[in-house]
Write a structure and sequence with these properties.
- The chain is an all-alpha fold.
- The protein folds into 4 domains: about 120 residues; about 170 residues, no CATH class; about 150 residues, no CATH class; about 150 residues, Methane Monooxygenase Hydroxylase, Chain G, domain 1.
- About 75% of the residues lie in helices and about 0% in strands.
- The chain is built from 24 helices and no strands.
- It is flat and about 155 Å long.
- It comes from Balearica regulorum gibbericeps (East African grey crowned-crane).
């Protein structure tokens, strides 16, 4: 542990008798001093002893260092001597090697012309046999020496090509004939060896054929035999991958240029097997079934590119990426040139069918929205002015929005985006993706959502209708859910395809325009729905509120509680508030509830202005407003609650004693109100005409 002087002194003092007051002992400074002095002497003795030991160790270390240095010097001298011997030996070896190389060059200079002369003599001998017309040499008659015969005939064939045709036409013909026979024999031998699986024999024959013109035919035979029995299953792509994997291991053991042979095999598979398979699969549905055709095209192209990715592992030469891309293009170019037209045509017909099937299931005939005609003109005037121009359209509670329809449209579009990503040329991808997006906007946003909004608007009754059923909030709720799904697909599937192209801004603007267009209709429908809610409240108040409620005939026999009209209005309002919360989300809920709350307050304010109030009637009005205020708390909007708090304070003016009117009017809640508003409420009192009340308020 690290040494700490203060702790050491403390422990020493604690151990010394009389060194402290612990345990009841008296403090004895002399004894403590004596202990310190003795301990210091002990430490000094210990220090001297340790110092002597250190000096002894230092002397020993210096002695050993001198001995080690002396030993190192001796080793360095030995190393220098050994290095000199090594240099001498290296010089001697270099001298001997130079002599040997010179001698070897001299021997090679003598031997090479001799070998050439011997080889030329042999070729002349064989040439004479062809010239005489009789092949006697064992190399031509013994089938086991076909390798040596091939080497000779190949050289003779080269020589014969240099000879004049008029003098040596016959011998040239014989040599060419033998050349062709041997070539055929070698190819036949290679074929037999391949069937027997003799790799070493195949390698020997291929090496001999490498210098013959028929070498490419040997490669063709090899490729053909490799594919025998390789495509027996239904999955031609998996069979091709397994075949290439097997050949890749073997081709390097047989041929001197394995990458060329393997590339030729792959080219043959693509241009023969795959092209034929793709054509059979696509032509079957190309004109009769667009959906199956697009699915097959996407599946086949995907499996072909996956196969290409597997083949990238093999050595196919320098630019294998370009090589494989050209092979894929050669198979699919005919189908990819007009792919997007087929895609758009299918998407259009499929989307129209989904929508029509839905409307048929509802027994609904789509009507033309805003296309002219007296009836449409009346409908639009009625919508905007609430004039009684005929009955509104009864939708029977149907929103004409279906999440199932939306999911089906989005699923079809999602698949179209996936196919577009895979099958479109990179330069055409943003343009094609935009066309698919435009189809989605047309059918989902315009033909389905916008139509439902227009129908919903037409189904909103006028504000003076009694017992009106308000279904537009259901339309709002479903449209909101659909917008979220639409936006998610836009971000997840369209954005990756257009994010780095000029089409991005075009798509964003199109999306913005369609959403703004629908928001205008949603706002219009919500505004008119709120008007209908207020209209319903007016009907309730008109039917249930009696003039005697606030000016009872018997003032002494009145039960202080809220009126029946108040109970029904509050019940209706609470249902509408709950419906608004269920139909919207986010800030939209607060915005709509605030608007409804303000209109609700204005209605109650104007309603209270219609009556005269006795003292007990004023108490009943206060009870009603208190209940309205409790209902306003359900809105959870500060402004609405504040408005009803102020209205409650105004109602106190109906019951307060005349002497206290000015004091109440100057209170916190009423001090900032216009004096005319205060006066209008005081005028509602039945005793307002009395000189005493008028004098106190003036």
């Amino acid at each position: 542990e690290p040494f700490v002087a203060d702790e050491y002194i403390e422990r020493l003092a604690w151990r010394t008798p009389g060194g402290g007051s612990r345990g009841g002992e008296a403090f004895d400074p002399k004894r403590l001093l004596e202990e310190f002095v003795n301990h210091i002497q002990e430490l000094q003795v210990m220090d001297e002893r340790i110092q002597r030991k250190v000096e002894k160790l230092e002397q020993q270390c210096q002695k050993e260092a001198k001995e080690f240095a002396k030993k190192v010097q001796e080793l360095q001298k030995s190393n220098q001597v050994a290095f000199q011997h090594f240099q001498e030996l290296d010089e001697h070896i270099s001298y001997v090697a130079t002599k040997v190389c010179h001698l070897g060059d001299q021997l090679e200079g003598v031997n090479t012309p001799r070998q050439r002369a011997v080889e030329a003599q042999k070729l002349m001998k064989y040439f004479n046999e062809f010239l005489d017309g009789e092949l006697k040499s064992d190399v031509f008659t013994n089938s086991e020496k076909i390798k040596e015969a091939a080497d000779i005939i190949q050289k003779l064939h080269l020589i014969a090509q240099e000879l004049p045709f008029d003098r040596f036409s016959e011998v040239k013909s014989k040599i060419a004939s033998k050349y062709h026979d041997l070539e055929c024999q070698l190819i036949q031998e290679f074929t037999s060896a391949q069937r027997r699986g003799e790799i070493s024999r195949m390698r020997e024959v291929a090496a001999v054929l490498l210098h013959f013109k028929g070498y490419s035919h040997c490669v063709d035979v090899y490729i053909k035999q490799c594919q025998e029995g390789a495509f027996l299953r239904n999955d031609v792509f998996e069979d091709a991958a397994i075949l290439c994997q097997r050949v890749n291991k073997q081709v390097g053991e047989v041929f001197s240029n394995p990458e060329t042979v393997l590339a030729k095999l792959i080219q043959n598979i693509f241009e023969v097997k795959l092209q034929s398979y793709v054509k059979d699969q696509l032509e079957e549905h190309r004109k009769s079934d667009a959906e199956q055709y697009l699915k097959n095209l996407y599946d086949l192209y995907t499996r072909t590119t996956n196969l290409s990715s597997k083949l990238m592992e093999f050595n196919l030469g320098t630019d294998k990426q370009t090589f494989l891309s050209k092979l894929i293009k050669s198979i699919f170019i005919f189908y990819l040139e007009n792919y997007i037209e087929v895609e758009i045509g299918y998407l259009k017909s499929r989307s129209a069918m989904i929508l029509q099937r839905y409307y048929d299931s509802k027994n609904h005939q789509k009507r033309s929205i805003g296309t002219g005609g007296i009836q449409d003109l009346k409908e639009r005037i009625r919508q905007r002015t609430n004039l009684p121009l005929g009955p509104s359209i009864d939708t029977h509670g149907e929103t004409f929005l279906s999440q199932e329809v939306v999911v089906n449209l989005l699923q079809e579009t999602k698949q179209a985006f996936e196919r577009c990503h895979r099958l479109s040329d990179p330069s055409d991808l943003p343009k094609n993706a935009f066309r698919i997006f435009s189809m989605l906007v047309d059918f989902l946003c315009t033909e389905h959502i916008d139509y439902a909004l227009e129908t919903g608007l037409a189904g909103i009754p006028s504000s003076d209708s009694k017992n009106a059923n308000l279904y537009f909030l259901d339309v709002v709720h479903q449209a909101n859910t659909i917008f979220h799904l639409f936006d998610k697909q836009f971000n997840d599937h369209l954005m990756p395809l257009i994010s780095s192209s000029p089409k991005l801004s075009e798509c964003l603007q199109k999306k913005k325009d369609i959403i703004e267009q629908m928001e205008v209709k949603l706002d219009m429908g919500i505004d008119r729905t709120l008007n209908c809610m207020i209209g319903q409240m007016k009907h309730i108040l008109a039917a249930e509120q009696k003039k005697t409620d606030f000016k009872p005939e018997d003032e002494n026999n009145v039960l202080i509680q809220y009126t029946n009209a108040c109970v029904k209005v509050c019940g209706y309002v609470r249902k509408q508030v709950e419906k608004i919360r269920n139909s919207m989300d986010g800030k939209n809920v607060d915005t709509v509830l605030m608007e409804l709350g303000v209109r609700f307050h204005r209605l109650i304010y104007e309603h209270l202005q219609q009556y005269s109030y006795s003292c007990m009637g004023g108490m009943l009005a206060i009870c009603d407003v208190a209940e309205y205020r409790k209902c306003a708390k359900d809105f959870k909007i500060a402004l609405v609650l504040q408005l009803f708090d102020t209205l409650h304070a105004l109602c106190n003016l109906l019951v307060v004693a005349p002497d206290n009117l000015k004091q109440v009017c100057s209170g916190e809640q009423l001090a900032n109100l216009d004096k005319n508003i205060l006066h209008s409420f005081v005028q509602l009192r039945v005793d307002y005409r009395s000189a005493r009340l008028a004098r106190h308020f003036s």
